[in-house]
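Before the break, one more example. Copy the sequence into your notebook; we will annotate it together after we see the structure.
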Amino acid sequence: PATIGAFIYETYKTLKSESLSLKFEWTYVIGFLVALVVGYLALWILMKLLKEGKFYIFSIYTFIVGLSALIF
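Here is what the structure looks like once it is written out:
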């Protein structure tokens, strides 16, 4: 939902701008599609881990990502 909302907002903002050009921003479409696929895969993997009772694997991943965020 957040990705779709951001895509719609950025497309609207681009089309409404005063310096409207006929060039379509494919970067928005590509970014939207990549975020959609990666988000879907991440949720699918998370649901699979939850159903198999291996939630500790997700906690290890979350710890690594959180530690990386603090370092960088």
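The longest helix spans residues 26-52. The two ends are 28 Å apart (CA to CA). Try to locate both features in your own notes.
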